[in-house]
Amino acid sequence: MAEREELTWDLFGSASRDLARQVAESGFAPDLILSIARGGLFVAGALGYALDVKNLHVMNVEFYTGVNQRLDLPVMLPPVPNAVDLTGARVLVADDVADTGATLKLVRDFCADHVADVRCAVVYEKPTSAVSCEYVWRRTERWINFPWSSQPPVVAREGQVLDA
Question: Which intervals hold domain Phosphoribosyltransferase (predicted)?
């Protein structure tokens, strides 16, 4: 198996603070942070606290169905944020990784016609990304093991508890 990036919870804490410093030092002051669920929820929450931004929104986008398995195109899942809530705002889009960049492009393009400014912050960016993010903690070509998704679920979707 190819070598992987290993992000621990402790390292994520440092990474999110570094991302917040990049945003602050650039002079960009977001009015709201738009999280791409699910991995972006952790990033958005950490950035929200570090940048003192309480206005957090969530956009649910389905793209990955497994390791290196994805849909042909990312799909927005309901509820889709109301564009009126974004009008004129400075938006920071937060996600865990810019892999192909398709998800970030979908969300950024959704925002572009309504907001004053939209920028992207990710923990990892891959060279294959169609979006070049303004704020990146680390660039890699490897598959990433995130602390929130590297272990199997505790409960199966059907509600059955899995064996430990």
Answer: 11-149
Q: pTM here?
A: 0.85
Of the candidates 58, 126, 122, 47, the residue with the CA atom closest to the CA atom of residue 86: 58
Q: Contact 104/120 with Cβ under 8 angstroms?
A: yes
Domains in the chain (CATH in brackets) are 5-145 (3.40.50.2020)
| CA atoms within 13 A of residue 114's CA, in its CB half-sphere | 14
Distance in angstroms (rounded) separating the CA atoms of residues 12 and 146? 9
- Over residues 117-147, the pLDDT tens digits come to 999 999 999 999 999 999 999 999 999 999 9
Give the strand pairing for 135-139 and 117-125.
Answer: parallel
Q: Compute the distance between CA of residue 59 and CA of residue 78 in angstroms, rounded to an integer.
A: 8
Burial of residue 100, with CB atoms counted within 10 A of its CB: 0-12 exposed, 13-18 middle, 19 or more buried = middle
Q: Residue 123 belongs to what H/E stretch?
A: strand 117-125
The C-alpha torsion from 23 through 56 and 105 to 147, rounded to 10°, is 80
Q: How far apart are CA 43 and CA 33, in angstroms?
A: 10
